[in-house]
């Protein structure tokens, strides 16, 4: 059954667990997440970006998620839009049946240029008004995600733009967060606490206390009923990185956020944990290996199935580690 993000987050807060929110673009990702959730009895957040709607086609994405609900009637499903760039993107997601939208006003509509507080609060408040009128939840974002090492926003291939963010915008300010919640009435708030998007987060192995836990604590204390979201939370599995590179891939050495660090964040108030890169890597690694090991195969179902199984294992591990297993 479909539920809103607000309902799920309120329940998660009451029971002190965190929820992975996995990005979905295709059938195998949706199936992997649902199979894992059913196996460990967890609710799910399926999030689609505007890019996902463009990739699959809006009706296809909508019907895939409806199909997931039909196949797994006992799994509560939040259908969340990830990183809405403007009011129109959020409105179209609402019209498409999403039960939750993210208005990311931390960046301008180009999704590259950091926005002012006034722009962010204004556009987010506008989305909240429309969404709440229709019973849809809203996630906002305050602060810019970027590497604390370099100030750069994450890039998928590790060779991104040279724009360097101001260090102060890389950590969300607790007082400003309190003001933002007052000004917008968002249900959930994505915060900058040391993570960044994409596969290239850290150049050397981070310790389990890599997150800015003090910052998380202070923000949570100031806005205890607004649920905290952590983007850029892939762990960048070392085993899948090795498989990708051993089977013809060429990814640079890189590290993600240790699962233990995320679990620590959940203890201090993080409730929604966004993960995309980990499933991308598992999928790519599994397909590379499968095609290498089965050179005569030309039935795509075989390698898609390998990708689905690999993604499912990661989903299961995250459901269990974050404490949502058993809470469907
Ligand atoms: O944070 C962004 C997510 O990884 C989604 O990426 O816009 O390429 O679908 P996408
Ligand atoms: P990763 O790139 O760490 O998987 O983060 C995904 C994300 O934040 C989607 O909104
Ligand atoms: Na999101
Ligand atoms: Zn994100």
The count of helical stretches stands at 12
Low-confidence stretches: none
What's the CATH architecture name? Answer: Alpha-Beta Barrel
Order of helices and strands: EHEHEHHEHEHEHEHEHHEHH
Q: Strand percentage, roughly?
A: 5-15%
**What's the story with the biggest beta sheet?**
8 strands, parallel, barrel
Number of strands: 9
Q: Mind telling me the CATH class?
A: Alpha Beta
Compute the average pLDDT: 96
General shape: globular
Q: Which small-molecule ligands are present, each listed once?
A: glyceraldehyde-3-phosphate, 1,3-dihydroxyacetonephosphate, sodium ion, zinc ion
CA gyration radius, whole angstroms:
19 Å
Strand order of the largest sheet: 2-3-4-5-6-7-8-9
Q: CATH homologous superfamily - what is it?
A: Aldolase class I
Helix vs. strand class: alpha/beta
> Percent range for helical residues?
40-55%
Named CATH topology: TIM Barrel
Task: Summarize this entry quickly.
It is built from 12 helices and 9 strands. The chain has helices at residues 5-14, 27-40, 50-56, 58-71, 87-96, 117-133, 174-184, 213-222, 238-246, 259-267, 277-293, 300-322, and strands spanning 2-3, 19-23, 44-49, 77-84, 100-103, 137-142, 188-191, 227-230, 270-275. Strands 2-3-4-5-6-7-8-9 form an 8-stranded parallel beta barrel, surrounded by 10 helices.
């Amino acid at each position: 059954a479909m539920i809103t993000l607000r309902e799920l987050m309120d329940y998660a807060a009451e029971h002190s667990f965190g929820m992975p929110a996995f990005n979905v673009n295709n059938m195998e990702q949706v199936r992997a997440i649902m199979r894992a959730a059913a196996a460990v009895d967890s609710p799910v957040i399926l999030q689609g970006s505007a890019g996902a709607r463009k990739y699959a086609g809006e009706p296809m994405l909508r019907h895939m998620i409806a199909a997931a609900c039909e196949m797994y009637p006992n799994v509560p499903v939040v259908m969340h839009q990830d990183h809405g760039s403007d009011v129109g993107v959020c409105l179209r997601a609402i019209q498409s049946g999403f039960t939750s939208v993210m208005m990311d006003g931390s960046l301008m509509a180009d999704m590259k240029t950091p926005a002012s507080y006034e722009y962010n609060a204004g556009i987010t408040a506008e989305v909240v008004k429309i969404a709440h009128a229709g019973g849809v939840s809203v996630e906002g974002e305050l602060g810019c995600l970027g590497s604390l090492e370099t100030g750069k926003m994450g890039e998928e291939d590790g060779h991104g733009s040279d724009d360097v963010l101001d260090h102060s915008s890389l950590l969300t300010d607790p007082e400003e967060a309190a003001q933002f919640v007052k000004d917008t009435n968002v249900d959930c708030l994505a915060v900058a606490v040391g993570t960044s998007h994409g596969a290239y987060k850290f150049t050397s192995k981070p310790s389990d206390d890599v997150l800015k836990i003090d910052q998380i604590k202070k923000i949570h204390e100031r806005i205890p009923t607004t649920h905290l979201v952590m983007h850029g939370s892939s762990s960048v599995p070392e085993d899948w990185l090795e498989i990708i590179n051993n089977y013809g891939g060429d990814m640079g050495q890189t590290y993600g956020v240790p699962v233990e660090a995320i679990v620590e964040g959940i203890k201090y108030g993080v409730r929604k944990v966004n993960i995309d890169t980990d499933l991308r890597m598992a999928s790519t690694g599994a397909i590379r290996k499968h095609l290498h090991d089965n050179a005569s195969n030309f039935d795509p179902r075989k390698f898609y199935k390998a990708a689905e199984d690999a993604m499912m294992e990661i989903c299961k591990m995250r459901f269990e580690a974050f404490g949502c297993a058993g809470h469907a």
